[in-house]
Amino acid sequence: MKTLADVEDMAEIVQRLSALTAGNQRRWGKMTVDEMVCHLSDAFRVALKEKHPQPVSNWFSRSVTKWAALQLPMRWPHGVSTVPECDAKVGGTRPAELARDLSELHLLLVRFSKRPRDFEYADHPIFGKMTEAEWQRWGYLHMDHHLRQFGA
Asked: 15-39: b or e for each residue (b if 16 or more CB lie within 10 Å)?
């Protein structure tokens, strides 16, 4: 299973991220490539306790959904809504300039994946408490999902 804790998996994500341009068109969903980059940054800010979304978890999302999303060998479904604090059209970070936003995302990705960690993970707004391994698996899957959304 791929994870940001693995050097090769991390390198793959960084390479795919560096291939993004303003010309990347979405294959599904409503976000633009610029909004997607800000969404990914905001999601890392949540994990790093720099953004504080309202929890929307319940027993099912903290157990069954989390297990399925992180453990089953399937791609995440399209069209699952995010929390408002990670939605650039609502309460999330609004795109500024793509190159600068990509640079910020890269810095957050590196900080999130750095070992040893210099932060404590927040609870995930949907999945609740997660271990370091679960957060690193989530980070890979979340990045992969949205990079595939834009053909990267």
From this structure: ebbeebeeebeeeeeebbbbbbbbb
- In this predicted model, what pLDDT tens digit does every residue of 112-148 receive, in sequence order? 999 999 999 999 999 999 999 999 999 999 999 999 9
CA distances in angstroms from 131 to 18, 31, 32, 70, 138, listed in the order given: 28, 29, 31, 12, 10
Neighbouring CB atoms inside 10 A of 133's CB total: 12
**How confident is the model over 64-75, as pLDDT tens digits?**
999 999 999 999
**Cβ-based neighbours of 114, under 8 Å, separated by 6 or more:** none
Q: How far apart are alpha carbons 25 and 91 in whole angstroms?
A: 23
Torsion region of 15: left, alpha or beta (phi above 0 gives left; psi -120 to 50 gives alpha): alpha
